[in-house]
Amino acid sequence: MKDAEKPTSCRPGWVHGGDSCYLIRSMTQQWAGAKTVCDFLGAKLLAIESSAENEFIKSELTALTVNHSGSDKDLPPKYWTSGTDFQTPGTWLWGKDVPFGFSSWAGGQPMTHHCLAIDPQNQYTWVAEDCERSTNFICEIHLASSHDTLIG
Question: Whole-model pTM?
Answer without folding.
Answer: 0.86
